[in-house]
Specification:
single chain, 9 strands, two-stranded antiparallel ribbon, 5-stranded mixed β-sheet, 6 helices, binds FE2/S2 (inorganic) cluster, binds iron/sulfur cluster
């Protein structure tokens, strides 16, 4: 396949023509916030709206996960308008997040913490009012625990579960009530889940945690 040369944040990079911009940046050690992208998914969901960048010659910021690289492309991942969109999107997302890192098994490997650190912002903004649903934790599965209050609706687990042909996890409701759940809201342990537990590997937050991670945190001092 043809190779192309592009510039990201002033760095000259070579990639294959048609490669996805987000993965090219990440593979070259240039971090762009992202929650919903999965490298194996050829049709990006573009749901989280956190991967905005600016490209020379393009009028508006665009999502890196939906863009392919081309020769001569000049990308700025920290440009003003894109950064403003990302910060605002992150702030909104965190307004409905049950923030409790001290007791969360994902702490220190959480993508939300990484994004906040990258943007130089606090995990929880004081500007926005909390907007939370307080949903019950699903403890029914032998391999993992699902806490919907920590879900950011990225859709990675849903895509994976469908793509593996299991189809236990899906979205229900719209707007503020939107949630990842099972058919008729059954506890995950009472569905046809084949216990592959792959979903916990793609979850960027503490929403899907293996029992080991959950219990290790419970034993450790906060
Ligand atoms: S999911 Fe991440 S940000 Fe949320 S409580 Fe857990 S470690 Fe903290
Ligand atoms: S449970 Fe995790 S992977 Fe699934 S949508 Fe929520 S945050 Fe994303
Ligand atoms: S990673 Fe691009 S919109 Fe989520």
């Amino acid at each position: 396949m043809k190779t192309v040369s592009l510039i990201i944040d002033g760095r000259h990079i070579t990639a294959r023509e048609g490669d996805n911009l987000l993965w090219v940046a990440l593979d070259n050690g240039i971090y762009i916030p992202n929650l919903c992208a999965i490298q194996d998914n050829p049709e990006p969901m573009a749901a989280c709206r956190l991967c905005f960048v600016e490209v020379a010659g393009r009028e508006r910021p665009l999502t890196a996960c939906t863009e392919t690289v081309s020769n001569g492309m000049e990308v700025d991942t920290k440009a003003k308008h894109a950064s403003r969109l990302v910060r605002h999107g992150f702030e909104l997302l965190m307004a409905s997040h049950a923030l409790d890192c001290a007791h969360c098994g994902k702490s220190r490997s959480c993508e939300l913490q990484r994004i906040a650190h990258h943007l130089g912002v606090k995990l929880k903004s004081r500007r926005l009012k909390e907007l939370r649903q307080e949903l019950p934790i699903d403890n029914s599965h032998p391999g993992f625990v699902y806490d919907p209050n920590k879900c950011v609706l990225c859709g990675r687990c849903v895509w994976l579960c469908q793509n593996l042909g299991v189809g236990v996890l899906g979205f229900a409701h719209r707007g503020f009530k939107r949630v990842v759940t099972t058919f008729e809201g059954k506890p995950i342990g009472d569905t046809g889940c084949d216990q592959c537990t792959e979903c916990i590997n793609v979850c960027p937050t503490g929403a899907l945690l293996s029992r080991d991670e959950k219990e290790a945190k419970a034993r450790s001092p906060a």
